[in-house]
From TrEMBL:
Keywords: Centromere, Chromosome, Kinetochore, Nucleus. Signal peptide: none annotated. This is Transcription factor CBF/NF-Y/archaeal histone domain-containing protein. Gene3D superfamilies: Histone, subunit A. One of its GO terms (molecular function) is protein heterodimerization activity. One of its GO terms (biological process) is chromosome segregation.
Length: 78
């Protein structure tokens, strides 16, 4: 990624979250949402990798990700 290039449009994320929550948002709520998403994806891939290795698969497949999704979503439920 080039220097100065944004990973996501901050204003758009804030507008979407505000429209769905009808609450006041703090200044850096979009950063927190992005970091939570990145942490969730990291956890999901870790769990999928563990499940794939235990299942004797050579690599991560869509099936191993689907199996790990429920557990990861339960961990990140707010």
């Amino acid at each position: 990624m080039a220097p100065g290039q944004k990973m996501y449009p901050r204003a758009t994320v804030k507008k979407i979250v505000k429209a769905h929550s009808n609450c006041n948002l703090s200044k850096n709520v979009d950063v927190m949402i992005f970091l939570d998403y990145a942490l969730f994806m990291q956890n999901l891939m870790k769990e999928a990798t563990i499940g794939a290795k235990q299942g004797g698969e050579r690599g991560i497949t869509a099936r191993s990700v689907r199996k790990a999704t429920a557990d990861s979503l339960a961990k990140f439920k707010g």
